[in-house]
Amino acid sequence: MSIYDHIELHQGDITRLEVDAIVNAANSSLLGGGGVDGAIHRGAGPQLLAECRTLGGCPTGEAKATGGYDLPARWVVHTVGPIWKGGHKNEAALLASCYRNSLTRAAELGATTIAFPAISTGVYRYPKEDAANIALTEIVAFLERPSSIAKVYLVCFDAESLEVYRKELASRTDTT
Ligand code: ADP
């Protein structure tokens, strides 16, 4: 059994997934936005925004959990990805800490299944290949240590983003 057996790619809407936790690519206010953030708030209903208002925002790279309310997911882990500014503003370390901290929050809650969108690759414009590489590196490192997390879904809205993950996964599993 390979560590990669615990990672699954999925094309579709993350808000439809019946997993313990879905990760939201939020902005630092945690008060909603466009993209996946808007979809999660629409799916969860107004109680999610009410809980988010009590959290006092979230710094880039960190993560905070809430309930999932009307979503099939029990929890939402809100993380704030870096805005891509060319690569010399600590973007890679910040994106890595988004994945690490989101997994840590979910494991603290006892989640066994978690789904991630491609954090920062939408309006924050992080290059998709680099973002996929960081996501997989952090997820594999986390899965190598004992925790409640048994399955990590990488969810892409579009086929092109999914293909980026597929290539990144293939390049890793071919050599091991
Ligand atoms: P960011 O501000 O972190 O870049 P975005 O929401 O703009 O966040 O985009 C992050 C990624 O999530 C993009 O690849 C986008 O296509 C994808 N996305 C948008 N809506 C959904 C959804 N409902 N389910 C899964 N992925 C989504």
Automatic annotation (TrEMBL):
Database matches in InterPro entries: Macro_dom, Macro_dom-like
Domain Macro, residue spans: 1-173
Pfam families linked to this entry: Macro (PF01661)
Domain of life (superkingdom): Bacteria
Stored Gene3D superfamilies: Leucine Aminopeptidase, subunit E, domain 1 (3.40.220.10)
Record protein name field: O-acetyl-ADP-ribose deacetylase
